[in-house]
User: Which sequence fits this backbone?
């Protein structure tokens, strides 16, 4: 069972993780905004996550932690 | 089981870089290598002038700030003062290493100084607002070349790895990119080798990382990564340009 944790307050909403996800499970939260004014990334379906950590590999700000 | 977490050699200070700037990825790769080799306590980094000028806030190891372009000279001094007990690396951009710091870079390589250099090539001066750099591509539009870089007036971009490979001094030169997962993994391998070479006392190791600057290129972060594939890599081919120890073994 994969577990993805995103530090939304540190996310800059660049979207590199969104494009890296092979299962297309990540998106930028259009309805949320963090203190810095960015739309943070969020996972849409945790069940489908395969914990490949591609998102975390491409994240420039180390906001994603992946557990399995 | 943790598959991926922030490396310990990075502090918890938020990076000041623009959204989607790949400096963050390279910072992380360097920190991961420091963690894996278990050298945090004896590593000293040298920060440049440029966007990564505040790298000293982000790395948990000791850091020194060098004058613009002089990081290889500062690193030489630190390394020579106590070569057995310290691992010294510099982290420099293209405006720093390939422009004002060309002399220091070339001569550190010629002397085969036992230091590690991480060279970020994003083909532009990022911190000062997107001026043309020595590595800007022919025809590239920047703040100071609004009609595209004219090679008749401004000369041709410098390919640092190829230039240094003509010297007998350097131990290891490789060019990598961080525009997709595969390239990031290859970049980590190269950075690890560059540090490992220093641990083994082999000498001057430089890894050139083709990086993006979405803000000054005027692109979205994802489009900037695609631009690396379309424009940067054809002009700056990836690969190993020098690996003296491997050549000896063959």
Assistant:
């Amino acid at each position: 069972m994969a577990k993805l944790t995103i530090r939304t307050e540190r996310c800059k909403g660049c979207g590199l993780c969104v494009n890296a996800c092979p299962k297309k499970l990540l998106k930028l939260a259009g309805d949320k905004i963090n203190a810095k004014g960015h739309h943070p990334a969020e996972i849409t379906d945790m069940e489908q996550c395969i914990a490949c950590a591609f998102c975390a590999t491409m994240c420039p700000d180390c906001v994603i932690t992946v557990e399995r | 089981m943790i598959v991926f977490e922030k490396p310990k050699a990075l502090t918890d200070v938020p990076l000041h870089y623009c959204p989607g700037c790949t400096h963050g990825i390279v910072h992380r790769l360097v920190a991961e290598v420091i963690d894996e080799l278990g050298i945090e306590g004896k590593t000293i980094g040298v920060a440049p002038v440029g966007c990564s000028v505040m790298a000293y806030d982000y790395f948990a190891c000791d850091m020194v700030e060098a004058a613009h372009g002089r990081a290889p000279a500062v690193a030489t001094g630190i390394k020579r003062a106590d070569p057995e007990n310290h691992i010294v690396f510099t982290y420099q951009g293209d405006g720093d290493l390939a422009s004002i710091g060309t002399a220091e870079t070339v001569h550190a390589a010629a002397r085969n100084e036992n230091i590690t250099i991480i060279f970020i090539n994003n083909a532009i001066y990022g911190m000062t607002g997107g001026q043309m750099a020595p590595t800007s591509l022919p025809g590239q539009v920047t703040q100071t070349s609004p009609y595209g870089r004219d090679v008749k007036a401004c000369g041709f971009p410098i390919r640092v790895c190829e230039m240094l490979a003509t010297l007998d001094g350097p131990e290891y030169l490789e060019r990598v990119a961080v525009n997709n997962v595969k390239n990031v993994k290859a970049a980590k391998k190269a950075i690890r080798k560059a540090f490992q070479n220093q641990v083994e006392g082999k000498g001057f190791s430089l890894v050139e990382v083709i990086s993006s600057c979405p803000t000054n290129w005027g692109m979205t972060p994802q489009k900037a990564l695609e631009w690396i594939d379309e424009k940067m890599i054809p002009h700056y081919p990836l690969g190993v340009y020098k690996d003296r120890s491997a050549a000896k073994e063959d």
The two ends of chain A are 6 Å apart (CA to CA).
